[in-house]
Structure formats: structure tokens, C-alpha cells
Write the C-alpha cells for this entry.
Amino acid sequence: MTANQTLAEAIETLQEHELRHVPIVDEENQLVGLLSDRDILRNLPYLSRSKIKNSTKFREDLFRIEGSRAVLNQQIENVMTKKLWTIEAHCPLIEAALILMKKKIGVLPIVDSERKLQGIISVMDLLKVVRSMVE
């Protein structure tokens, strides 16, 4: 995704792909930020929990808003996290795990020496590795 896309587009992407984080890149695929479900929630009007219903769509109720939908038209750039911890692809897995744990973050973007996005690694990815080791 790019910084000039809207929160509505970001929510659609998160729901469609069942994601909690999405990297934000510029025209040269350089990492400029990260948008998480929490970044979005901090910018949505509060919805009383009593109005939440069961849904089959991924996190549909999480992103439900009351009142004006204009908030969904704001650009991602206004709500994304810009100060990021990143790693390069050659980073040992244990080092990535230690960064995630020490910094109490859920995802690390993987970039090359020019800060071009190569991928991301999440806590869930690490748990999958651990699971495969014990099976």
C-alpha cells in the first residue's frame, strides 16, 4: 500500500487478506511506514461494544464506526507508524525474535540496503517455525 491511499482502502486490504499489519511503500518500493489495525482503531470514532454483532467477515466489527464515514477518507500517511524497527534478509531468525520480544512489537519489515521492502516477519511467523520444530 502507499501513503496516499485511504483508511477505507487499508481496512479493505486488511480484511480481504486477513492481516493485522501492512507495510507502506513509496513509488520506488522503499519502506516509509507500517499501518496496523491498532493505528486504524486509534483514528476511528469509538463504537460502543453493546452494538457489536457476530460477523463472518474478518474483523468487520472491529472496524465498524458510528456517525460520519469521512474519517475513512483520510490518507494512511496521517495514521501510519513512521518510526520503525527493520531488519535485512540476512538477519538471523533468533535476532529477529529478540528484537520483536525486546521492543514488544508484532512485526518487523525486512528491507535491503536501500530500504526497499523485501517482506515482513511477524510473531505468528516465528510461532509457525517453533511449531514445525516440535512436530
Q: What stands out?
A: The helical segments are 7-17, 37-42, 93-103, 123-134. The chain has four helices and four strands. The chain has a mean pLDDT of 88. The longest strand covers residues 31-36.
